[in-house]
Design brief:
seven-stranded antiparallel sheet; six-stranded mixed sheet; Arc Repressor Mutant, subunit A; 13 helices; about 525 residues; elongated; alpha+beta
Amino acid sequence: MTPKGKTANSTTLMIERVKVIQENFVSNDQIHVAGGDHQGIVINKVASSEVENNSPAQLNLEFRVFLVNAQTGMHTQESRNLQFWFTPKLPDNQQATVAQEFFKELVSPQEFPRDYVGFIKKIMKLMQHKYPGIQKLEIILRQLDQSHNLPTRPLSADESSLGKHIELTEEKVLELIESAYPNPITAEDIAQEHNWEEEIVLAHLKALQEKGIVKAMEHGAFTRIVQHDTDIQIVKQMPTIVSSQQPTIAIITAQYCEKIAVDAMIENKETYVRYTTVGVPPPKTRTSMYLTSSMVRTTRFGESNVYTLGNMGAHRIVCTKLPTVGHTREAMTAAGNTTTRLLGTFQKVDYVFLVGVGGGVPHYTDWNQNVRLGDVVVSHIANDNKRSVYTYCENAEVRADGSLVFEHKDYCPVNLDLQHIASQLKAQSEIEYDDSPWVRYLNSGQKMLQTQSEHDFSRPSSDTDKLYMSIGERDLIEVAHPVSSDSAQVKRIEGLPRLHLGPILSGRDVCKVDQLRQAFSQQCSAK
């Protein structure tokens, strides 16, 4: 290790692999030769700016941590930049993988170094014993700014609701109505689910009615009004559709905003909504533990369905939305019933797409593999020829020896026609990109949504696209997104989504734990 330079707020160190004769090195005022468990490590005590460093780094990685002053309690954000040079024996296509694995091990939660000495020591030990493909590392430590309080840890919407009281707002009531759509939902159901006052829920519902966003229905229920969609028919049974108008492609969405986005791409739309009602027995009381024929049964809405039919190019499409979102048995049963009923109603459907938003798998060192906010992922088999486009993890276990075991099911279509089309689309987009047809269609759909929806479908600001990595129970570090070596390419696609291909994973247990999610994603080469 050699110190290269130091300023008032930065320090630069270099660690390189050099073949030397042990006898030529003796500890003195300028050099420290380690022994014992650290044999093989040599530390130059004197800074040197004359170290040969003519070639640019082959890979760069930056992350940020917060340092705490024990005396003042002030938090200082520090940037730590790692620049990699690799040995000639390491193939180019393995460099990003080696750098990412090195970084993950460096900041692993089990033994994350909490001070400078531990941080530098761990880098040297990892290079010495586990990563012979790394020839040289340059570390730049730079203090950024100070603050009195540690920044708030980002939480997912699902995580923030666990064990916490959710604030009752008009926006939250609308979110629950949209989540239940096409099922109408009562104020009583909304209030009971979150332990809210029913009168306040009704007040918010009245305000939403006055804005023309929701409407009241029978049995005290409310549902979403679909804006700017004039051809909506309420039916008891789906009408017979002539053979030439039967859809061959079905699109299933889970969120209301997802269906609105898909519908914007459909031409000549017709929407059918089918409501069902069920009788609900009155609650049993202590004085009457058995129901009698004289007791009044209340009526409420059951599972409802919405189908939007139309054209996308030369194809006939049907789009639907799952009526309930969640992880309960009722929600999963409703999702299964909706899909079964869809395929039973439209029996000429050959292809089914599940379209919606999801979390991408970040790559800390490879720009090509890093999925960013606003990008598009299409399910596809991995490059290692595993026959799976979708994998569901049923259980994840951390064994006593630290090894991870995943119980999962893999799914793959009988033919890969859609995957081949996706590959062709990706190849075309990488050649034409801003001139490719899918970008034009995307822009057209966004313009339509700007005038037809209360939702904001514009691309999020790049400032909001933060990449975090867990280093403990509640501790995070911010990692800079990897950059492309082709600056012209980056400039060309700036502000546009990129297309990625790879397996898609799910599973509540594995998705909620950062360590398990990363390990399982790597095992399955997921996006």
